[in-house]
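Recap from last week: sequence in, structure out.
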Amino acid sequence: ARVVEERPDYRGTLGFLITSDEENLATDGTVRVMDELDRRGVKIDYCVIGEPSSSHRVGDVIRVGRRGSLNGRLTVRGIQGHVAYPQLGRNPVFEFAPALAELAHEIWDEGNDFFPATSFQISNINAGTGASNVIPGELTVDFNFRFSTESTEAGLRARTEAILRRSVKDFAIDWQLSGPPFLTESGTLIPTVQQILKENLGVETELSTSGGTSDGRFIAPRGVELVELGPCNATIHKVNEQTSIAELNQLSMIYEEIMRSLLTDV
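Predicted C-alpha cells:
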C-alpha cells in the first residue's frame, strides 16, 4: 500500500496471494491459481514467497530453489502362514531386507553447486497381524526422495524398482510427485534482494535450496524469477510455532524496498 500511494504510476502490476493446501500433494491452492493465470494469459516476472527462510536473523538466508519431493508407498506381497511351517509361507520382511539395505546405501547422485545430493528416507514401515506366531502376508513401506536437479523422477523410479526386483518376488509401488526441483540461477531479482538486505539490515545473504517443499514448485517452472524470504524458522512445525513482530516489521520494510526497486525509479 505504501508503494502504491507513493507512486501510483508504478510499472507493471502487483499481486498478493494467500492460499491453503501448500504442503503434501497440494491439489488446490496455488497450483490452480497458476493454471488460471495461464488461462488468462497473465505472466509473472518476479515472485517473493514469505516462507520462513531465515536462520538466525531476517535475511541471512534466502531460498533460490528447492529440492524435488517424490513419495512412494511400497507393498510387498508374501504368503501368510504359521511360523512353525516356514516352508508353507513366504515372508515379505525377509524379501525386502536386502533391498532395504541397498536402498539405504545407494548413492543417487552427488548434487551440484546449488543442491545437496539426493536423499532417500523411510517414514513408515509395517507388517504382521500382531500375533507372534504368524508369518506376515504383506509389508507396506512409505518412503520419500528429496532430489536435486541431477536426478529425475523417472530415473529414481526406475532405479528403485530395479533394486527391489533383485530380492522381492511380488511388489507394487504407488508413486506421488509432490513437486520437481526448481532453481532461480540468474536475473534481476536475486541481486536486487541481496543488495537491499545488505543496505538496510547489514546482512550478507546466503543463497540456499535446503528445506522442504513450497509453493515455489508451481511458480518457478513457469519461467518466473523467484526467491523465498521470510522470518526465522526456529519454531517451524513445533508446538507454539511463532514469529516476532519485529521480524514482520523488518520484512515489511524489505518487501517495500524490493517493490520500489523493481517497479519504480525511486
